[in-house]
Amino acid sequence: MRDHIRPLTASRTAARRAVRRIEAATPPHRDRAVDALRALAILGVILGHWLVTALVADSGTLRTTSPLQHLPRLAPVSWLFQTLAVFFLAGGHVATRSHASARARGVTYLPWLRARLARLFRPVAALLTLWTAVTIALLAAGTRVDTVHTLVKLALSPLWFLLVFAALTAATPLLTRLNPLWPLAVVLHVDLIRFGLGGPQSLGWINLAAGWLVPYTLGAAWTRGELEHPRAGWTLLLSGTAATAALVLWAGYPASMVGVPGAEISNLNPPTLAAVTFGLAQCGLALLLRGPLRRVLRRRPLTWAAVAVVNLSAMTVFLWHQTAMMATTATGLTAGRLPGLHTLPDDLLWVAARLTWLPVFALALLLCRAAFHNHENRSPRTPNQDTDQTAGTRTESATVTNGVRHA
Asked: How does pLDDT run across 89-108, given as a tens digit for each residue?
């Protein structure tokens, strides 16, 4: 009996040491609420994709569908897991603060931008390399082109987010003083022309930039200290909620805040006014949660350690979460069509079955993280890393990573 207890005790001891190491490595000035909001946003998107994306095995092919297409009453699920606005809020705040700090230390624009974009795009190379090889192998093995197209499209779908985020990051010096009402007005007028005046639907792609500019510039306003009073958070939460409800109930916008296959209008592709007002409500709630999150993360080192680990691999887990789901789906095919994995998502039994697959998806994602997270963290020291909220100090990043690895 003791022989079985000893490894468990040693593992717990190592985990406690790792938690203490992470806590000791965290600078006192670090705003832990920012990291928590970013981690919640990334995990929300991942869980949302795993819940509303289904790969159906049918006549020798795999095609994409969604439970929201067959069970529209599940639309509120998308309200919980469509959290990209919170990520852009935190990203705008961090980038604005980082740029101001870099300027104060005499760091010019290009070195600052290079350092920020390197962390975003370094993990992309591994994803593209693997999926290029997978695509060639599948085609050589005689896999149907439509199946390959479905898989590659899903695997590379996270890249659109990185491209938009990178563009806004590059424009940060021009956005530090931009009032969020200006991009909000652009979204309003684009939707008015598209839906109210029968204008071209292609005009909506303007909102791909304008829509995410709204939470990004809210992050810049946060950096300027304009959103510190709780009144700002309540105003955004209540007004965003009321506007979204009005748009869905009376203006014909979809209730789902993610794209639904076959739907005439998508709130996300490109973003609509309803998606933006919903994001405003989320940003308001995020601002109200800053204080409680800071207190909890300072009192509970274990929770902070989990947040720090997620942030150190944020881009890796985001880029590979669809691959993890597809790897599980492909492996499961060897056992036949499994409920919740290969079957049509047209009833609540599918939902129950899909929930049981989530731990398997998570395990597959952990394996992807173990294989590829070094691509995200192996950066040389750069001028803006000393005060960069995204990556933390280089000392903290190395200490946290080593502590987790040794645990």
From this structure: 999 999 999 999 999 999 99
Q: Where are the domains of the chain?
A: 32-51+67-406
Q: Please, which residues have CB within 8 angstroms of residue 162's CB and are 6 or more apart in sequence?
A: 120, 121, 124, 315, 319
8 A C-beta contact, residue 271 and residue 191: no
Q: How many CB atoms lie within 10 A of CB 395?
A: 12
Question: What CA–CA distance (Å, rounded) separates 370 from 357?
Answer: 20
Bridge partners, residue 271, by sequence: 268
The CA–CA distances, whole Å, from 29 to 13, 26, 87, 296 equal 28, 8, 21, 16
- Rounded to 5 degrees, what are φ and ψ at 266? -110, 135
d(CA 353, CA 62): 19
Considering only CA atoms, give the Rg of the chain: 22
User: What DSSP letter does each residue of 221-286 carry, written as one string?
Assistant: HHHTTTT-SHHHHHHHHHHHHHHHHHHHHHS---S-SS--TT-S--SBTTB-HHHHHHHHHHHHHH
* Residue where the block lists tokens 């919640």: 40
How many C-beta neighbours within 10 Å does residue 356 have? 11
Residue-wise pLDDT for 143-169, tens only, equals 889 889 999 999 999 999 899 999 999
Report angle CA 250, 251, 256 to the nearest 5 degrees. Answer: 95
Whole-structure pTM value = 0.90
